[in-house]
Amino acid sequence: MTAHTFTIGHTTAGPGTIAGGTLVVPAHHDQPGTAIPFTIVHGIEPGPVLLLVAGVHAMEYAPIIALQRLRTAIDPKTLRGTVVMVHVANMPMFFGRRIYYSPVDGQNLNRVFPGKPDGTLSERIADVLTREVISLATHVLDLHGGDGNEWLRPFSYWVTTGDPAVAQAGRAMALAFGLDRIVVDNARPTDPAASMYLSNTAITRGKPAVTTETGGLGQVEEDAVALTERGVAGVMKHLGMRDDGPAPVAKPKWISRDVVLRAGTSGIFYAAVEPEQMVAKGALLGHITDFHGHTIEDFHAPFDGEVMYVIGTPPITKGEPVVMVGCES
Ligand SMILES: [Zn+2]
Questions:
Q1: Which of 142, 146, 214, 311 could bridge across to 199 with cysteines, CB 3.0–4.6 Å?
Q2: Ion ligand 1 — residues with CB under 5 Å?
Q3: Distance in Å, CA 16 to ligand 1 centroid
């Protein structure tokens, strides 16, 4: 049963109301603190608690803007259950306009879950999200996109590891979200104390979760925002939180094989392909030059597949992802 009221931190929403609040991550030792803005949309009737998180990587803008629309588009008077929105999980990245890593501690927030109360700022953000928000949810959507440098076609990740019932519920959520490519991830940790990813923090605690990817290149594209809103509406319908909503995707491609090629050297990157492009094994995907025009590395498709994302801006640093290719088997 949904409680009569719903509380996060110092913010309480009564039945049939919307409440906004902020979670405070205190400063610690030499590192600053931060604030995490959230909205609670609390229905009158009991139901699931769906957590929507945007801005774990805060230059992934489409989900952030989608949640700004959804915060007023979901009617608490007709909602069954509760929707919790974390508007920007990683505020230092948002105002710093950073990709991949926090400007404060250089860490990737989506690799440090479940976090530590006395750790770096990224670890403390993860800890607050784990304890104060993920703990209250029954279902979780971690809303990502191509980062500020990533040119991406939309897809979801379905995590197969852990409790089979949780995995099956996650599969149904991925279908309900509606994106027509679903990457099958068989390699996530199963230890709740070393969950690494936000979605996996939920999964290892028995809560079905899906990570989604919409938008990219630091843009707010209407199509990507609309896909995100539509996806949330599909999951809400699927979970019985609302009567109306889009149907699940009928025939997605299950991307059961994928590879992310990484740069072996730093330089200027030139993409030779676009997202959604089908490529044959051996096809040129892009190349890196030095600053005197010499090609110093090129990238070829390791198998026949589809380009899921490719770096769309010139800087490339050794070790960074360059291109993701996936296929159905
Ligand atoms: Zn991301």
A1: 142
A2: 57, 144
A3: 32
Q: Which two tokens stand for residue 93?
A: 């990245």
Say how many Å lie between the CA of residue 179 and the centre of ligand 1.
Answer: 16
Q: What's the 297 CA to ligand 1 centre distance in angstroms?
A: 26
The confidence score (pLDDT) of residue 1 equals 45
Residue at 6: amino acid letter: F
Assessment of whether the complete model's pTM goes beyond 0.85: yes
Is 273:282 a contact under the CB 8 Å cutoff?
no
Instruction: Report CA(54)–ligand 1 centroid distance (Å).
Output: 9
Report the pLDDT value the prediction gives residue 30, as an integer from 0 to 100.
Answer: 87
Q: Hunting for tokens 């996060």 — which residue is that?
A: 8
The DSSP letter of residue 136 is G
Q: What does the pLDDT look like over 115-134, one tens digit per residue?
A: 999 999 999 999 999 999 99
The values of phi and psi at residue 101, to 5°, are: -125, 150
d(CA 154, CA 240): 25
Find the 323 Cα to ligand 1 centroid distance in Å: 15
Q: How far is the CA of 5 from the centre of ligand 1 (A)?
A: 32
